[in-house]
Amino acid sequence: MDVVAACRAFVAVSGHGSFTSGAAAAGIPQSVASRRVAALEEHFGGRLVDRSSRAVRLTSFGQDMLPSARRLVDLADAMVDDAERARLRPLRFAVPEICPPHLLAALVVAARRQRIHLEVRPAGPAERVRLCRTLEVGAGIVAVPEAAAAWRVPLGLAARTPFPAPTVYLETLRSGRARTQARRRVLIQPEDDVAHLRDPLTRAGQSAGLAPAQVSVAVSLVDAAATALGTPDLLLCSRRQAEEFGLHWCPLAGPRLLRGYDLAAGVREDHEPLGTVLHAEVARCLGAPDHPGPTVGPSSGEPA
HTH lysR-type domain spans which residues (predicted)? Predict the structure, then answer.
């Protein structure tokens, strides 16, 4: 027997003084209400209502049991409300600051179709790791080396003028013999200021004979893009970013650089859909091809 449903019928019938009216208020047929009250009486071993007249009157036993039945119904309703609130609670999701807002909005819409209410929180690479570690977010996109990545974004160099060759060699950025010749810099945006991207590029620049200052980290993506638009300097970025800023993009001859992203921290049931049914939407936000990586489980959240 469904005790909650039976108590709900009992409370409705007693409140309206009629099986017909009580059943209508409870949204069930009169016959169902009668059977449920009868089953409750059998379960508790006593008559709850007096059926000797058209109007339903509670027996003394029924009067004693009515407060408990009401509490049980109220508690059941409260549990339903709590469950709905729990389903609707926002999942705070740390994402790269470079994700375009319109694509993040599309991700939120797609998540809602899966009954996931995302609350995106754009942040830089180190801040995303901190947010995951402190559980200030339920899940986050963290930067990882290519081998551990669920999403990968190829990087190249962008400039205000077209490149003369299909790939860029860092050696071509060395200063000429004329001291007046400007040294073109390679600017690393904050999103790529992680060891597995910054260090190989710095070492490659040194091997190519570039001056130490020719590979440097910019204070912001906007500042780096503005510099690339107004000077001969180059911006390390994805093809999509170059197109957004109206820059010409070209891949590097070496080293091969890719942004790697994975999910970190949080409860598995919270972030698992982000790596499965929402994989394509997350990929679009990151500017990555929608090809699943080796894993979609939680990473350690450690900065690479």
Answer: 1-59
Predicted model pTM: 0.69
CA distances from 39 to 18, 32, 42, 265 (A): 17, 10, 5, 49
Domains (range + CATH), the chain: 3-87 (1.10.10.10), 89-151+261-286 (3.40.190.10), 156-256 (3.40.190)
Residue 216: both structure tokens together: 């440097």
- Give the C-alpha separation, 69 to 234, whole Å: 74
Torsion region of 115: left, alpha or beta (phi above 0 gives left; psi -120 to 50 gives alpha): left
CB 145 within 8 A of CB 261: no
pLDDT band at 301 (very low <50, low <70, confident <90, very high): very low
Phi first, then psi: what are they for 178, rounded to 5°? -70, 120
3-state secondary structure of 222: helix
CB neighbours of residue 17 within 10 Å: 14
Check: CB of residue 284 under 8 Å from CB of residue 290.
yes
**Is 136 buried (19+), middle (13-18) or exposed (0-12) by CB count in 10 A?**
middle
Q: How far apart are CA 141 and CA 139, in angstroms?
A: 7
- The one-letter amino acid code at 85 reads R
Strand 234-237 versus strand 156-159 pairing type: antiparallel
